[in-house]
Structures are given as C-alpha cells and as structure tokens.
Amino acid sequence: MAEKEHLKNISLPVLGMTCASCATSVQSMIAAQLGVNSAEVNYATQSVKVVYQPEVIQPEAFQQAIQSIGYDLILDQETGKEQQEEQQSALYQTLKKRTIAAAILTLPVVIIGMFFMEMQYANYMMLLLTTPVLFVFGKSFFINAWKQAKHGMANMDSLVALSTGIAYLFSVFNTFYPQFWISKGLQPHVYFEAAAVVIVFIMLGKLLEENAKSNTSTAIKKLIGLQPKTVHLITTNGEIEIEVNAVIKGNLLQVRPGEKIAVDGEVVSGNSYVDESMITGEPVAVLKDMGSKVFAGTINQKGSFQFKAEKVGKDTMLAQIIKLVQDAQGSKAPVQKLVDKVAGIFVPIVLLIAILSLFAWIWLGGSNGFTHGLMAMVTVLVIACPCALGLATPTAIMVGIGKGAETGILIKDAEALELGYKVNAVIIDKTGTLTEGKPTVTQIRWSEEFKGDKVQMEQVLLTLEQQSEHPLAEAIVRYFNGLSVKKVALTDFESLTGKGVKAVYNKQTYFAGSHRILTELNIQLNEDLAGEVLRLQEKAQTVIYFADSQEVFAIVAIADEIKSGSKKAVQALQEQGIDVYMLTGDNKHTAAAVALQTGIVNYQSEVLPSDKADFVKKLQANGKVVAMIGDGINDSQALAQADISIAMGKGSDIAIDVAKITLISSDLQQVPKALRLSKLTVKTIRQNLFWAFIYNLIGIPLAAGLLYPINGFLLNPMIAGAAMALSSVSVVSNSLRLKLAKLN
C-alpha cells in the first residue's frame, strides 16, 4: 500500500511518432526504465501516460530514453499540447517544402536518365541534382534507418535508405571511374533517377500521412469549446463574473438567455428551456425548473435561472464525454502495419541474398567472379527497391477515397476502408440519422364543430407561437410563414410554464400548448379530434392544442419525419447479413414507431451517450465488427468507440470530426455503398501487395544470377531498374481500376 501511495501518474505529449510501431517502440522503451510501473501510448492523441515512482525516476529520464531512438517528449504539462501542435504544424510545412523541392530537382533527373543518357556530362548533372534530393531533403530516411539499425530493427525507412543509398553510391562510382567496367567489357550504368524517384514517392506518402494526423485533435478542441470560459457567481455581495475553473461544488450560478451552462448542477430558482441535443441528440429543448438537472455544454434558450453546482471540472458529463472520446480514439492496426512487419524481415533477407551473391560469384565465378558478383549484389539491391511496396497501400487508399468523394462519401481515415468490409453490426442513431432531425408540422386538423373564421384563427395561433419560447413553436411559425399568414395584435400575453401560452385577442382569451391546458380548463375533446389525436400518437407525433376557454378549435401535429431512403438502407444492410440496431434518447413510443416504419427489429430507447458507447463495447466483446452511424455530439463517444464511425453531413461538427466517414448528403443509402467500397479497396490493396512481392520473388533470384549456370543469363542492373519501375506502374495502374468500379 505504501508503494502505491508514492506512485505518480503523468501524461506527456510525444513528438516524432509516424506509425503504430512507433507508438509500440516509445511505450516499450519507457516501460523498460527502472522505476516505471506502466506506460501506455495513445497514438491518436500523440501522448503517453506513465505511472512511475518519483523517488526512483523523473520524466527527464523518459525523454532521454526515447530520444535515443529518434522521438521526443514535451515535459511542460501546462503548455505541452500547444507546443506539440505548433511543432506538428511546423513539421508538416517543412515536409511539404522538402517534398516540393525534391520533386523539382527529380524531374530533370528522370528526363535526362530516360531520354538524354548519351548527353555530355549527363551523369555529372544527375549527380549534382540527386545528391540534395537524398541527403538534404530525404535525409530523414537515412537518419531513421541508422537509429533503427542501432537497436537491431528495420522498417520502410531502412529499405528506402539501403536501396537508394547503394544505387547512389554505385552510380557515383560509375560516374567517376567508368573505365573500371569498360576495361572488363561491361557498361557503367548509373541509377540516379531510380534513387531520386523513390525518395520523392515515399516523401509524398509521408506528407499525406502528416496532413491526416494534423486533424486528429479537432474534435476534442470543439468539445472543450462547448464549455464557457466564465460564469456568473451569486454571492452575498451580489453577482460577480469568475473563471469557470474557479467554480467549486455548491456555488450558486446565474444563467442568462442564450448562455452555455458551465458545469453540472440543479436548478434552484427560475425556469427556461435548455437545448440538450449535445447529450440526448434530440432536437426539442427541455423545460428546466426547480429541481431539474442541468449539464455543462448545454445551451440555455430565452429564459434565465439559477442553479447550484454539483459536478465541476473533470467530473462533469461534458468532461466525461471528452475523456471517453480521447480513450476510444486509440491507435488500431492498419494494413500498413503488416507491410512494416514484412519490411522488417524483408530487409535482412535481401541484404543476406545480396552478400551471398557477391561471395558466391567470387568463389564460383572464375576470373570475372568479383566483377559479376559486385554487379549481382547491386542488381539485387536495386530490384528489391521498396517503391512498389510503399505504394501498394496508399495508392489504393487514395483512389478509394477519391471514388468515395465522387459518390458523396467523405472518407477521412484509411482504417475505415481497411475494416469496413468486415462490418457485421450497424448501430444507427434515430434523430437526424434515420429521421430528418427537424420538427415539422405535418398537419393542422380543425374541429368539425368549429364555425369561425379559420384565417383569423391561423393569424392568432401564429402570433401566439411567435411569442412562445418553446422549440416546437418554431415549427409552427415556419409552417405559417410558408403559407404567408400574417400576424395580429395580441394583448396580455403569458407563458404558462410546462403547459403552453395564452393571450387576448378582441377581448377573447386564446390558448396554445399541451394537453395539460385542456385538463386545467376542463375542456373535453370532441370525438373527431380525440380519434385523430390517438392516431397521431400511434405514429409518435407530438400534438399541440389550440383553444379558447370553452372549446378546442384545432390540433397541430408535429413530427420528425423519417428520411425517404432510411427503410431501403436498412433493408440493404440486412440483405448483406448485417445486424441493424437503433439507439435513441427518445421515448419508447417514438422509438417503436420509427423502428416499425424502417424495418428495424432491434432497438433501444431513452439511451444516454455513455450507454451507446457501452452498447458498442458489448457487441465488440461478442466478436462483432461494429459500424456506428450518428449525427450529434451525443453520438461522439459511440462513434469513437466503434470500429467504423459514420456521420451525417448535416450533423454536428463534432460528430463529423470524430467520424472516419461522413455521408455528405446525409442519405443512409450511402452506407451499403461505403461498405462495398471498402471491400473493393481491400481487394485492390491485396492485389497490389501481391504484385509488389511477386517482382521481388522472381526478380531477386534472377538478379543474383540463378540462371547463369543454366543458360548464361545475368540480369543487367538497368533491366533490374526497369523491372522495379514496372512493379510500381502495375501497382498504380491496378489502383486506378477502382475508379471504374460500381458501388451499387
């Protein structure tokens, strides 16, 4: 127990991580330090959590440990995140400039190498242009490869550095000492263009990766932005404004119209409607009066009230949502990780083959054994260049993302394309996803017994609702504005909290609101309206009553309409053998009605954000690959937790930022298309990897001279370079075929 009390928990930003294996290296390096109990790296948030014994080790030691393998830590906890963002932004801009500069220098090298090889001083010109491409703009590959080698490891940087480095050195030798080969009856070929092109291609891939990484924290920033920076604290000396961080449990706070609520608490006086869509996902604001609970990040409407702070800081529901999103955004294993693993084995094998080729030729090749052996070694390293291997995944992903964009499917994460085809469970939010997310008037039914002036009564109802604070009133106002109904002059307007509104027109009092008004006035509905109300409620529609003190003139039906394509989308998913679930914060009657109309069998109502995330975890624990589809802030936890996250284009910014796929049109029928696109993209990646490796499996033995004893064939390094280029062309061409694919 004493040891646990002396443990310290710290979270620090990490710099320099570019892949999932980087996160593993950082984590294992820190965890291996004496005095460290545990280390957990979150690649998505570029940070590491360390539990350590402060009397044994300090954070400076963590920093020194990972600096030795090419990474770094920011030890300043107060400004660490800001420093990290600044450095990542600077890194991206630097990489962008280097890539552009390298491409500019490489273009003339390629032109000279392919079309003007016999030009005077061609080799010297290519040497002059290629040198800065490799050792100035592409120096990070060689630096990283050396750091990996010092720890007995190899990755894609190792392949790039070895192949381009050997090709460059061999070309430099042939440029200055061509007579060495000419005297032996061989041509002194150079491979400057191959070395430069490989560097540019791989740099371009890293640039795209950095661009994607730079947006990972946007969702968290917007969630944090939901909390106001200051609050109005009520004291014995009056009301004062303080920082939200200074609020403590038990403080009495004032909320004015239009303000965001700062912390969780309970209303003690006043009343208002509060927009809680960021928690519930429902578009209708909720009445808050004495005893009601309010939550940080929700938005007050037109009224004002005072509430007592109950949960502050990290204990608020908003803070919990932020934490859950951060935790769920941890790194996962993409296809590229497999390529890195293969590359780690591939590099030593290629080196071994190249060295064996040299010694085999020296031993068995006779008088020209060393010459042929040296050529064979270089040819093996040239033909084993990882250009095709490096292009296999990103080209397919890029084309797949472009194909998705053409059809209104915005894909922001390669992982979504890699996992989508495995999805066998889809969770769909109701409001704004299955439905339009906007309450609208479906009809106004006038009583058959009403004999008055309907036009005049419409004007009275419009004017009543224009002065109402209730969110449903906006739907009625929009409806009448569409009909060009005019306002009239009302007097003695009064808002009846939780019931509706009333006002006087031509000495007659009129009411509009819920059924509670009828109960209070002791008004009975006639048979035709009562039957219509029952029918509407079965369809999960909300009913507003318009009456005077003696009779109901009309009822207004308001509903959140189901999108036209929702049922077809659900059916298409079910036909693919995918289980479809609906989770909503709405009531049981509405949930049941929507599920029935869309053909969904499995659904849950009155679900909180954390419940949605827990449901995702439950399905995942049962072996399901889960896709979550939502549109609100309340869906962000579940979106982040799901294997595939899909947001509606018309949804909240935070849902869109958290999600890996956004349906620009907000049409659910795009979901089956997105999963089909994933299947085609993964198929293309596998084909690309096949072509990338098959050239090496065939080419490396030929380059080593396997056929020489049989028929005297020895692969020329120039042909090896062409074969390497052909492998890249085949990979890119295969990826481009995705553009022609049909997603229906």
Could you explain how this protein is built, in words?
With 744 residues, this protein is α+β, with helices and mostly antiparallel strands. The protein has five domains: 2-78, Alpha-Beta Plaits (2-Layer Sandwich); 219-224 and 317-332 and 412-435 and 563-664, Rossmann fold; 228-315, Distorted Sandwich (Calcium-transporting ATPase, cytoplasmic transduction domain A); 342-408 and 670-744, no CATH class; 440-559, 3-Layer(aba) Sandwich (Calcium-transporting ATPase, cytoplasmic domain N), CATH 3.40.1110. It is 52% helix and 18% strand. Strands 5, 6, 7, 8, 9, 10, 11 and 12 form an eight-stranded antiparallel sheet that branches. Strands 13-25-24-23-14-21-22 form a seven-stranded mixed sheet, sandwiched between helices. α13 (335-364) runs antiparallel to α14 and α15 (387-406) packs parallel to α29 (717-736). It starts with a helix and ends in an 8-residue tail after the last helix. The model is unreliable at 328-333 (pLDDT under 50).
